[in-house]
């Protein structure tokens, strides 16, 4: 079974396969040997889809054992009742039904992609690869800059340690750390229950290179890959960063974008705290393919309430390098 980052990619691939099948049938009818359909080039492979509902920890994963299940984020409990009342589309059953639209891009254009994933339209989009979402625990290696800093601030909330600021062009930004990520370990030391001051002190005492962090991604975030129409529109409206309406028969409607979700990134560029006019300008400057990272409003508002809103203007809003 082939998987696609967008509905448009699926339609184009199906048309290509149908055309190849017709050619093969014509060759066979003329007495020639029927050639198989041309293989899809690895250059057009898109990253694999991932479940919308945050996965349960794998039994054999050492890092996952630190947090056996994603049932709490900054004091917000993700029980089935809470999810059903505030964002029912993210219940496990609904998530499995919607599993084929969102994608978790890999770390670079040269990454090896699964052979079953096809993206004839989106495969060359750099933004698709910048929007890195794993919905899992990942390891990040940091260094310090010339001033001996890593370029981030953290905040301790409900015994967890969260990234509340990533400075532009800092080592933390270059390593892919993002606002709202949770730090589980620093150089193998579990930081659950540590204060903000203690974590900052640990980072100050670390050597200049090879600082290892175990990071848990922001919960319930996902990416949607959209394609502009002939007028340059992708088909949704937003206000204060929140998706409020979808245009009928647009790429946004076809590919499962949802209202009551906040925009976190556009083609991997952080837009948290960015004014609507500036977000529109970023989208307009994108090519034909636009990948947006979104989060349910229920989770986003809780996250912003817990963080220091005054730091938003100091966030890294630059275009990430691959």
From TrEMBL:
Q: Where is this region: Disordered?
A: 31-55
**Record's Gene Ontology CC terms?**
cytoplasm; plasma membrane
User: Which residue ranges does the record assign to the PDZ domain?
Assistant: 139-205, 223-298
In terms of Pfam families, this protein maps to: PDZ (PF00595)
Note the InterPro entries from the entry. Answer: APP-Binding, PDZ, PDZ_sf
User: Key word Repressor present in the record?
Assistant: no
Keywords per UniProt: Repeat
**Superkingdom of the source species:** Eukaryota
Q: What is this protein called?
A: PDZ domain-containing protein
The opening ranks of the lineage are: Eukaryota, Metazoa, Ecdysozoa, Arthropoda, Crustacea
């Amino acid at each position: 079974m082939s998987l696609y980052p967008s509905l448009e990619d699926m339609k184009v691939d199906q048309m290509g396969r149908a055309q190849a099948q017709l050619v093969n049938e014509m060759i066979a009818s003329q007495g020639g040997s029927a050639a198989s359909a041309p293989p899809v080039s690895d250059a057009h492979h898109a990253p694999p889809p991932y479940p919308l509902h945050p996965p349960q920890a794998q039994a054999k994963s050492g890092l996952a054992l630190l947090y056996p299940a994603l049932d709490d984020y900054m004091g917000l409990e993700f029980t089935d009742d809470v999810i059903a009342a505030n964002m029912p589309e993210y219940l496990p059953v609904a998530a499995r039904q919607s599993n084929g639209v969102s994608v978790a891009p890999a770390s670079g254009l040269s990454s090896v992609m699964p052979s079953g994933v096809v993206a004839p339209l989106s495969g060359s989009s750099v933004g698709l690869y910048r929007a890195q979402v794993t919905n899992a625990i990942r390891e990040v290696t940091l260094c310090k800059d010339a001033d001996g800093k890593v370029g981030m601030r953290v905040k301790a909330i409900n015994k967890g340690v969260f990234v509340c600021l990533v400075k532009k062009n800092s080592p933390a930004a270059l390593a892919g750390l993002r606002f709202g990520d949770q730090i589980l370990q620093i150089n193998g030391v579990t930081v659950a229950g540590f204060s903000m001051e203690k974590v900052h002190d640990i980072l100050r005492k670390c050597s200049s290179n090879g600082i290892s962090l175990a990071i848990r991604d922001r919960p319930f975030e996902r990416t949607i890959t959209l394609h502009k129409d002939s007028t340059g529109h992708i088909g949704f409206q937003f206000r204060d960063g929140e998706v409020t309406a979808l245009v009928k028969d647009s790429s946004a409607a076809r590919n499962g974008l949802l209202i009551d979700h906040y925009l976190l990134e556009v083609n991997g560029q952080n837009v948290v705290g960015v004014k609507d006019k500036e977000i529109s300008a970023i989208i307009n400057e994108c090519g034909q393919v636009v990948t947006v990272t979104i989060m349910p409003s229920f989770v986003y508002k809780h996250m912003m309430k817990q963080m220091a809103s005054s730091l938003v203007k100091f966030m890294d809003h630059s275009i990430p390098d691959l």
